[in-house]
Amino acid sequence: KQALTTPRLKAMKSQGKPIAMLTAYDYPSAMLAEEAGVDAILVGDSLGNVVLGYDTTVPVKLEDMIYHTRAVVRGAPGTMVVTDMPFATYRLGPEATLRNAARLMQEGGAHAVKLEGGAELVDEIRLLASAGIPVLGHIGLTPQMVHQIGGYKVQGKSSEQAERLLQDAKALEQAGAFGIVLELVTEELAAAVTHSIGIPTIGIGAGRGCDGQVLVYHDLLKYGSGIRDKKMVKSYANIGDTVREAIAQYVDEVKTKAFPEEKHAFTLKQDSAEASNE
Ligand code: KIV
Ligand code: NA
């Protein structure tokens, strides 16, 4: 399978082919996402919430993103991998942002990066794009700003906010972003943004009018708990219950000595080939 490139992702918009993106954070999640046929993987800084157990994405470090991106790329060698630039590793001026984005690509193996923010990031995005670093924008609810925003609220409800979001989307496109994530905005606004720009919009909690969708792996599978509003999430399985029940059964079988059984044991009577763990 050939990895999707950013021009092919853009072409999907003009062809009206929906883009299915999913987050992944390690080797097995990436492998399963690729086998299931996702168009692109996001190594989201939601890593902080769903894998590392932080309350917000703010504590996530560049090194965390590099480490997890390497595992994802090993698990999904045929899939386009976009990695989030974590809190305060951009907005430091274009050169410092370029250095950090380059580390995600050179050390992590990411094919593209994602930054949260609008028109204020155009200089940084222009430099990244000119250096060969594809940039995915992210506007609407931007979780790295949670302490500034004061919660995970639907964005773009007032006409001033909606107008600003539309201008941000246009600025990101002009600066060279290859796509834009729209998070937690009204369906009306997301559709309007989608029609106003030539690059694909990828929605999460942004309704039915986007060019693609993205979900958090752990939300899709109900595997542990996410921070995101339940209303915007659809869980297609309940892996958390499955895992808990399996572990509880294991614990019970150890306590009752039901496991291990004779067939799991190695004995002196077996020949050496049998006694090896095969
Ligand atoms: O970190 C993340 O998972 C994200 C998506 C929800 C877009 O940024
Ligand atoms: Na993110």
Automatic annotation (TrEMBL):
InterPro entries according to UniProt: Pantoate_hydroxy_MeTrfase, Pyrv/PenolPyrv_kinase-like_dom, Pyrv_kinase-like_dom_sf
What top-level class of enzyme does the UniProt entry assign? transferase
Q: Which cofactor does it need?
A: Mg(2+)
> Which reactions appear under catalytic activity for this entry?
(6R)-5,10-methylene-5,6,7,8-tetrahydrofolate + 3-methyl-2-oxobutanoate + H2O = 2-dehydropantoate + (6S)-5,6,7,8-tetrahydrofolate
Report the subcellular localization: Cytoplasm
Q: Which Gene3D superfamilies match?
A: Phosphoenolpyruvate-binding domains
Q: Which residue intervals are annotated with compositional bias (Polar residues) in the record?
A: 270-278
Which one of the record's GO molecular function terms can you name?
3-methyl-2-oxobutanoate hydroxymethyltransferase activity
Residues bound to 3-methyl-2-oxobutanoate are D45, S46, D84, K114
Q: Write down how the cofactor binds this protein.
A: Binds 1 Mg(2+) ion per subunit.
EC code = 2.1.2.11
Active site at: E183 (proton acceptor)
Q: Which residues bind Mg(2+)?
A: D45, D84, E116
Q: Which UniProt keywords apply?
A: Cytoplasm, Magnesium, Metal-binding, Pantothenate biosynthesis, Transferase
The transmembrane residues are: none
Q: Which domain of life is it from?
A: Bacteria
**Pfam families, alphabetized:** Pantoate_transf (PF02548)
Q: Predominant location of this chain? A: cytoplasm
Pathway listed: Cofactor biosynthesis; (R)-pantothenate biosynthesis; (R)-pantoate from 3-methyl-2-oxobutanoate: step 1/2
> Matching PANTHER family, A to Z?
3-METHYL-2-OXOBUTANOATE HYDROXYMETHYLTRANSFERASE
Q: How does it assemble?
A: Homodecamer; pentamer of dimers.
Q: What does this protein do?
A: Catalyzes the reversible reaction in which hydroxymethyl group from 5,10-methylenetetrahydrofolate is transferred onto alpha-ketoisovalerate to form ketopantoate.
Q: Which family does it belong to?
A: Belongs to the PanB family.
Stated name of the protein: 3-methyl-2-oxobutanoate hydroxymethyltransferase
